[in-house]
Amino acid sequence: MKKAHIISIGNELLIGDTVNTNASWLGGLLTEQGFYVEQVSTIPDSYDLIFGNVKSSLVEAKVTIVTGGLGPTHDDITKKVMVDLFDTELIENNEVLDFIKSIFKRRGFEFSRSNAAQAWVPKNCDVLFNNKGTAPGMWFEEQGNILVVLPGVPTEMKFLMEERVIPKLHEKFPDREAWATQYFKTSGVPESTLSDHIGDLNEFENNGVGVAYLPGVSGVTIRISANGLDVKQAEGKLETLKNYLYDKVGAVIFGEGKNLTLEAVTGKLLSDNKLTIATAESCTGGLLSSKITDIPGSSVYMKGGIVAYANEIKEGFLKVSKKDLEKSGAVSKIVALQMAKGVAEAMNADIGVSATGIAGPDGGTPDKPVGTVWMGFWIKGDHFALKTVLSNDRLLNKERTVMIILETIRRRLLKLEELPYQLKPQTV
Amino acid sequence: MKKAHIISIGNELLIGDTVNTNASWLGGLLTEQGFYVEQVSTIPDSYDLIFGNVKSSLVEAKVTIVTGGLGPTHDDITKKVMVDLFDTELIENNEVLDFIKSIFKRRGFEFSRSNAAQAWVPKNCDVLFNNKGTAPGMWFEEQGNILVVLPGVPTEMKFLMEERVIPKLHEKFPDREAWATQYFKTSGVPESTLSDHIGDLNEFENNGVGVAYLPGVSGVTIRISANGLDVKQAEGKLETLKNYLYDKVGAVIFGEGKNLTLEAVTGKLLSDNKLTIATAESCTGGLLSSKITDIPGSSVYMKGGIVAYANEIKEGFLKVSKKDLEKSGAVSKIVALQMAKGVAEAMNADIGVSATGIAGPDGGTPDKPVGTVWMGFWIKGDHFALKTVLSNDRLLNKERTVMIILETIRRRLLKLEELPYQLKPQTV
Description:
The structure is a homodimer of 428-residue chains.
Chain A: E1 2-9, H1 11-14, H2 21-32, E2 35-43, H3 47-60, E3 63-67, H4 78-85, E4 90-92, H5 94-107, H6 113-116, E5 120-122, E6 126-128, E7 137-142, E8 145-150, H7 154-172, E9 178-186, H8 191-198, H9 202-205, E10 209-214, E11 221-228, H10 231-249, E12 253-256, H11 262-272, E13 277-281, H12 287-292, E14 302-307, H13 311-318, H14 322-328, H15 333-346, E15 351-357, E16 372-379, E17 382-389, H16 394-413
Parallel strand pairs in A: 1-2, 1-3, 3-8, 13-14, 13-15
Antiparallel strand pairs in A: 4-5, 6-7, 7-8, 9-11, 9-12, 10-11, 15-16, 16-17
Helix pairs in contact in A: 2-7, 3-4, 11-16
Pfam families (chains A, B): CinA, CinA_KH, MoCF_biosynth
Family (chains A, B): Belongs to the CinA family.
Organism (chains A, B): Rhodohalobacter barkolensis
């Protein structure tokens, strides 16, 4: 297999300011592409260390990906090292310069001299045009080995890898060993339960299929991968396992694909069924409506939402009963139910959902500990609430509540029997 | 300064299953302890690569920390490499063996042979007793340099570092240099502009003070660091630069501290001034109210919000004029202004803010390209709107809009002259 090295440049990585998520992402992508990632070196913004590490990786690995040090300030020296390493010179790239100028003009910023420098590139490289930022990526070839230099900003690095580098790698190395990977995204089931239901996979693993459980925001992702003489053969190996997985745990798989989100899948279900939705949020504070509206085209199904943080807002906007608020408290089944129905009616939506809870880290009582959440659902008259107790981590509680709500909508629309985490629907 | 190297062993790190948070944590800790972390190498569970990397780090660095490969399964080979590297043998450590047996007994597990093997350690090492797990850490000394080998499980690694390794490092290197670091968080100014305004820092850098610009969600963070004979001296060196920074760019510094957020600072300003706020969001979809409510205690100042995704919601809930919606469109100054005032009045809040724009990636027109955002502000009668054009990245547009709004509130409450990105307030 062709070896790959990753070099992450940046003092902030070494002193613990930033976690090296770039290397992890790159490692996963290169592995999928059939490369053997032999090494990740994280080094400072130091001329000597960059020079030395790049020089040796360029010899040892077929593909070396370098990230970092391409910004406009004085500690960004990666480009200078490349010029010296290849004994070349910098030339101005007009396309990049124009692009940088247009970014600044559009935003109304002053174009600074240090930004102009980002348009100068080593003469011997192929420029990888960066639509997401001011620093272009660079592709070098040396004695059959490839060196790719990218900005360290994650969104820009990922864009350049996916849109520019991967196609060039396909061109350069057309007959790599084929590697096929598939991702099955689940929600509403813990890893240990999922693994128990799936059971022993030795038969598949002995046939060269790798299986991994990856934790994630919306739930556990099952990753299966196999190699083969060509893509067809590799994918063929996965087909049997895929069928097996759907047979065992199909209900909790909301879709396939590494980057697939629960909000996209639920959104599509709403759109396919021509349903509209409105949200009433207290403890989640707007995160639910924000996730729903992260999806382009969500205006088709999303009417809007109320963030009813203060109780008077719950009363005034959602018609929650003052008496019930006083009697049962905001974090209660009755209030969750009223919020869900209230927002659906106020916004004339087919579906209303609500979240009211104790986000934490403080605010709990023996009766209602931190992490207690009631989620209300009004799905065209189907009116119920779910209760769970999460953790004392405020931000995680918000995220998890949002995901449980989205998964509940998904399962209800698909008429699946079980709800996330086997929660039981409660009515008035 | 004494050099430190970190070697992280584990296939899962290279194929992207696990992010290398251990290295980040270790880097931060070693830096605080006055070491210069020169390199992190992440390598597979491969005999040759472990041998080669440990051997060279042991020569190049005063302290090398190795994590991983100490588990009970067949791919855990780190200890074998150590035995060969030091040309020594394994001996059974009774204290560790008894401890492992007691763990298993207590949990009711069957004690396996592979677990017994974890009690065997290289003859030439100091055992670092691991109360948190079955694999002890190991401390080796070779020609004045230190090699520490720890399990990769984060809780165990951190325990061993803090409880066993740090005390031994203090003993071994009693007169290390002290290190001080400070973080200044800015918002509303691009890195190049910030760097230009701060100017030449040679004078400080020649005095041993390092400066770095770190990009982040809310804006650029300026990190300054210095070493000295003791902490007092190190901090003293930073004092002058700190004053210089406040003098040059004080207005854009919203606070100090690595993890400080703009929403926390703005929230505190609202709370200190006894002001309440309500949000009216279209394109940001709830992200603004979600960020505000991420802060514990935000219920003191946050009344709530309306996510007015559909135009009828803008009309019905925010009293936006149907005529103006039809005439100027939802993404316009007049609608942003009405939304801000409308929500403040509807929720009886001192401050109302709004965001209406084209989040993307589609939906633009020549007149209003993707990324066009109008942000409305009603701050106790002070009524104005800001306009900017961001990018075609939907999620980034939402984030950036939220940060511009929070920073605008902050600067307005502090009566600072300039608004973020030099945007000009526009009125009816």
